Here is the input.
Amino acid sequence: MATRSRRPERRQEPLSRERIVATAVELLDTVGERGLTFRALAERLSTGPGAIYWHITGKAELLAAATDAVVAAAVTVDPADPADSPEDAVRAVALGLFDATEAHPWLATQLATQLSRTPWGTVAPRIFESLGRQVRAMGVPEADWFTASSALMHYILGAAGQNAANSAGAAPSGRDVDRDEFLDTVSTAWEGLDPDEYPFTRAVADQVRGHDDREQFLSGITLVLAGITALHRPGR
Here is the structure.
């Protein structure tokens, strides 16, 4: 009697909310928000749109979940590399968000959307908690926790978002643009401004050339932290 050969079972990774969100982040990074559709997502996941709707109700929820996933990874401090001080922990969180915004071109817009339209969601509390715990550890009086943490969050997201916009604006045609060449163009233009109307801008024009965005960003964090420390010393 001939024996029937057994067909090997095809094992597929089970569809989960986490897998859907991770794939959505990949799509956002490659095709942007307009290219993120449930059809494109279903093709990437080798499933049907109906299976995705079982986990995600719509595009708004999908964008919020993708934003939260990226932010969660950005603000998580590595336990193997603990910060020496609350100030160092703030810098680690700040750099995490700065780098994430640069790595994911869609993130700055989504952060602004999530924080303005749904501040009760997960994104705003996640960022606020990661900064607020360090503000508290710095010894800032409780009455000033909200103001100090807000100042840090606004600077971090504003500066990171502007940096991402600068990177996108430097190459409007989609071609790669040499950063030094771009900064030199800006510096030259500023140096050519009317000296009576723009004396300060002309004076700092040369400092634009060759500056390091991350170092400048961290210098701003140091200024904000110094202000918090000076204004909110315990017992002041």
